[in-house]
Amino acid sequence: MTGSRWIWQGILGVLLAGTIVAVSSRGGTEMLVGALGPTPNYRRKPVAFPAGLVVAVGTITAPILLRLCSGVEEDQLRRTGSFLLLTSGFALAGFVDDMLGGHSQSGFAGHLGALRQGVFTTGMFKVVFGGAISLGTVELLGPGAVGLMVVLDAMLIALSANLVNLLDRRPGRATKGFLLGFALLGVWLWTKERASGLGRLLNPAGSALGAAIAFFPSDLRERAMLGDTGSNVLGAALGYGMLQLAPAWRVAVLAALVWLTLVSERRSFGEIIEGSKLLRFLDGLGRVNR
User: Fold this and answer.
1) pLDDT confidence band for 118 (50 / 70 / 90)
2) How does DSSP assign 122-148, residue by residue?
3) Can you tell me the distance from the alpha carbon of 96 to that of 201, in angstroms, rounded to the nearest whole number?
4) N or C: which end of the chain has fewer CB within 10 A?
5) Angle of helix 148-167 versus helix 247-266 axis, rounded to 10
6) Confidence of residue 68 (pLDDT cuts 50, 70, 90)
């Protein structure tokens, strides 16, 4: 498939996922409020939670419809299958944490401490299940792949999902982080490989981009909250897109993610953002209440 065709298919996936989220957002959030009741956010304002289910539906459904409409090619089928495994798995892990998780433990250290005391937390479930799903995704994307790079790529996906999840503490923050990361990745791949690189990024991860853009207004206006369900899906999709980078660059990005994860164990990203004028300004952009 030519690079330009890949881009057009990717753009169609972005639009399709965005349409699915836009159409289902109101009904989906009303269903969540009716079934689970409104959930207070950081300002104690009642919002729909976990509205990331809508984002997950758009992200997962759009590639399936796109494949049905455009035909099945072996490479595209493998890419779509691995992406669906990843996003469905992380949506499930996030939903379990949203519904059953508590706030008595946080960070890897907190969940490991609970495990040493014989308590298996939903956060630890996400670590184990998310790691397995990430490994399965890398293996399915490149069948027969073995060695250290498989493990590193799986870590790249899992830590990307965790990083976006850590940002989901204020309206729009996690979505902004995802959109910024996706934009930087798209520019880099376009610079290096032009249409071929950008097309591979958008197929099929562009569905997460479309879903995030469509959900963004509800997130900023404090009508709905992503929760782990949505933030994990967006972060995992971003990590999937990073697999299009050259191996050396993937290792470099992984090192940065490991460093950020270690930083988050000692200091919350919220404190870091509040301590920086630039980050505080970017964090407040578009929010109705700052």
Assistant:
1) confident
2) HHHHHHHHHHHHHHHHHHHHSTT--SH
3) 29
4) C
5) 40
6) confident
What is the rounded CA–CA span in Å between residue 63 and residue 203? Answer: 8
Cβ contacts of residue 155 below 8 Å, gap of 6+? 134, 254, 257, 258
With CA atoms as reference, report the closest residue to 48 among 62, 18, 27, 75.
27
Instruction: Point out the least confidently predicted range of 130-144, 207-221, 235-249.
Output: 130-144
Token code pair at residue 115: 């495990």
Helices (H), the chain: 3-36, 52-70, 74-100, 107-116, 122-141, 148-167, 173-193, 195-220, 227-242, 247-266, 269-274, 277-284
Tokens of 113: 């401490």
Burial 70-86, CB ≥16 within 10 A → b, else e: eeeeeebeebbbbbbbb
pLDDT band at 87 (very low <50, low <70, confident <90, very high): very high
pTM above 0.90, yes or no: yes
Strand partners for 211: none
The amino acid that residue 59 corresponds to is T
